[in-house]
Amino acid sequence: MSHFVLDLNKGTIKLGTQRVVLHCNHYNIFLQKVLTDSMDKMKDIQIQVSYELNKKMLEELSADKKIACELFSAIGLGVLDLDSLENGKVIVSNSHYGFVCYYKFGVQNEPVCFFPAGFIAAAAELILGRKVNVTETQCIATNVEENDKCVFEVK
Amino acid sequence: MMDVDYVTQEFAKAVIENDETGLIPAFDVYLTKIYGDYYARISYEFERLLNGEVDDDPEVENIAKQLLIEAGHVCGFNTFGGIMKSEEWDAVVLPKIESQEDWVRGMVAVINVLGWGVYQIEELTPENLILTIENSYEADTFLRTYMDMASNPKCYAAVGISIALMSLVYHADISQKPALDEILYNKLFKDHRMFDGQEIECTAMGHEKCKIRVFRL
Question: Do B21 and A25 touch (CB under 8 A)?
């Protein structure tokens, strides 16, 4: 997906109408952990904000399954598998958030893929044509030795 | 004198894309291209909620801000440190370096390909850095999201990374390519901290540009 446009005069990188920024795994997971450890409700807020922004982007791209999966990887989040979406299951391999959380902070008590959860909710809503609830039921960060993928239930 | 435009142009040519794993490995970190609105909105919601839980307690307000600035330390330490130790830096920037200040100038030139806005150095000595930012993504998001002027500066990540930059160059001596580990991080930002900083102007408050000052303690 080569739709990212760098404008050096403005200091922006645009994907469609939305501005993206380059940040590293350390910042991503430190920010997420600080917010979530400080306030429980920040988990849902991160998922909701991700859902809103990704819905807007996926609508702009007139995304189908293929485009949604391409966008997911182009953002740097891992590999998204929507093949079983209609059966209520979505799989992420090499989850950026899952891996970096485990390697920086060790085994986690709960799943940590909040931005991907919001992305999946947005993609599923557009593809299925209805609102969905997304729950991460398996996460690399909770058991990296047994869980080589992150799994999301979509209802 | 460092040709910053040349450095920016050369780094703009770098291919920063996902590989077959769906990840973006670069400069010894994994990058993402996530919406600037995402980072800024979750940060401001956190600040708003935390401040709302206590009645105008300045200590609590300061906690939210300091945590968000510390996230910027983590970003700058790892991303800038990785860039300044990279082969790309050695090829493009190192031949142009004539002074320790050129390390700062070169890194600011590279920042301008990250999509964070246009960073420019207004003043630079080993004790002080004043950076201006046009189109800061943090201030930009604040204004569009809240449709109102901020009463305080809002570029928390920018403050953190600016402190990290001066710390890496003048405290860690990144030219010696030290290991970017927890020991060094604690030395720079905790135990033997040498620099602090603040945002002194912000477009979210109505100023023309954002302006950050980093100073030696």
Answer: no
Coil, helix or strand for A94?
coil
Buried b (16+ CB within 10 A) or exposed e, B54-80: eeeeeeeeebbbebbbbbbbbbbbbbb
Q: What confidence score (pLDDT) does residue A1 get?
A: 55
Chain B residue with the nearest C-alpha to that of A36: B46
Chain B closest-CA separation from residue A128 CA (Å): 24
The percent of residues above 90 in pLDDT, for chain B, comes to 90
First to last CA, chain A: 29
Take residue A113 and report the two structure tokens written for it.
């893929």
Contact A10 B118 (CB under 8 A): yes
How big is the A-B interface in CB pairs under 8 Å?
174
Q: Give residue A143's pLDDT.
A: 84
pLDDT tens, position by position, A14-73: 999 999 999 999 999 999 999 999 999 999 999 999 999 999 999 999 999 999 999 999
* The A79-81 sheet, strands edge to edge: A79-81, A89-93, A149-154, A134-138
Q: Considering only CB atoms, which chain B residues are within 8 Å of A22?
A: 16, 31-33, 113-116
Tens of pLDDT, residues B2-27: 899 999 999 999 989 999 999 999 99
- Say yes or no for a CB contact (<8 Å) between B32 and A30: no
Contact A94 B37 (CB under 8 A): no
Scanning the structure block, which residue is given the tokens 């600037």? B36
